[in-house]
Amino acid sequence: MSQHQAILLLGSNIGDKKKNLETALEKISAGGNIILKNSEFLISQPVEFVSSNIFCNIATIISTGLSPIQLLDYVKSIEIAMGRISDSKVSGGYTDRIIDIDIVKYDDLIFKSEKLEIPHQKHLFEREFSKKLIKKFI
Length: 138
Prior knowledge:
Layout: E1 4-12, H1 17-30, E2 34-38, E3 42-44, E4 55-64, H2 68-81, H3 88-91, E5 100-106, E6 111-112, E7 117-118, H4 121-126, H5 128-134
Antiparallel strand pairs: 1-4, 1-5, 2-4, 3-4, 6-7
């Protein structure tokens, strides 16, 4: 099975945010993905919605044998297992969340479907906190 490099961005603004991120990273690794490098944790304000809960974020580069859609399904299963109850693609808006895991890049692939867009344009070009976290990876 060939390996691919993906950049993931994780965020949490409910509960023990740092612990939520660490748990999600453990689950990503437990799925046969290899974590190559993590960014530092970064605290940020909510983006595109109003909340008094601030976010803790981290970026990670992984090596994976999963296809982009398989990887998306896997990270979404982690979100559900950790207690995330709504998805912004489904609900049409952002809310507080125990965990959010986005695929920012997958090799040099350019891909767009209803479920997934790679590269993730907002994280790469619009959101300042994202650009800070991933700038050393690109």
